[in-house]
Amino acid sequence: MNDDVIKAGVASDADYVGRLFRDFQAANDASVSSIMPLCMAPYFSLVLHEAKRKPQAIDSSAFDGFSAEAEEVCARARHSLKLFEDTQRHIDGQLRFFTDDILDKHSDHFLGNTWLWLARRWEKDLGLFTYEGTLVTTSHAAAFHLGVEAENLLQEDNGTYMLGIMQQLGRCFGALGARMDTQGGETFVRHLAGAHLRSADVRASTYYAQAFDGVATQAMNGVLTDFQVRMNFIDKIVTAGADIRNLEYTVFKIRYITLYQVLLSLKLLKDDARYPLSPSSNAVLKTILNTDAVHTITDGAVREFRNTLIHYNLLKGADPAKVDLAQPIFGLVPQYFPAYTYEQLSELVDTCIRETACALNRWESSV
Predict the structure, then answer these.
(1) What is the pTM of this model?
(2) Rg from Cα positions in the chain
(3) Using CB atoms within 10 A of its CB, is residue 24 exposed (0-12), middle (13-18) or buried (19+)?
(4) How many CB atoms within 10 Å of residue 236?
(5) Which of 35, 251, 307, 359 minimizes the number of CB atoms within 10 Å of its CB?
């Protein structure tokens, strides 16, 4: 049964990715088919990284030709989803990474390039992308989750390096069952209007100085901006055209994992005295975290549910006799959330996502 659950989870994710890229290819707007894959990138890597670690259930030949470089990129992107729960970096390491590998290297690359020093005040090093006026990603957030070293991401090679990595990922998905010629259901891409997607370039130092906790915590503000766009993406984009109560496996998985990690990361930040925030910022964190929905979704007793969504395999808290591959999330919801059906839990997650996204958006603009 454990192997069957792994196979079913990987198959569902691969099928969704195939339909997603089918819809990207069919999109009439280049901005949709170029920006939205950046938002989805860490989830693609999550699927491949975890599937590769299940050779007892997933044919390892699917990863033939997957280079060590591509594997490392995939692993870094997958682990980026842990946010402050990353046991290698923790809060301090994530802030240091954001400063050294994103803020500083992007500034070095994009600023100081004009020969006329008077014009340098108008140079920009941060791209903002909004959908219907809501920030859904930034160039820094995309870089944070791509898993690509800054030197490779920013090199002037006409995209050759990234194309090579993406082609390898695409071949792996194809071997796992992803098909772009599938007649399966539509993904969120079919329900987006390119006219609502806008972009703007700004100076990062100015933007972050006016966000979240203010000028003294620019690296923290940059990471919090990543949390903000993660939440806005799963709130406004990934469910476009879908029924919130009956989300398919992969969409629910993306939403639950992202919400869980953002909430746990905010809790770690609130509880760590080494990173003091202003009274108003602490008040926002308390408002976000002190709700019944948050306690239900992040309770330690349901961490195995999160772990199964990430790693595919059943854990000791699950009763294999009650697993049903025909049910949403294989019948695991009532095992970990006895008071909820799948539909009710999906509604609870949706409410929590919306409230958290709104709170982060207000916090970002409160300075």
Answers:
(1) 0.95
(2) 20
(3) middle
(4) 22
(5) 307
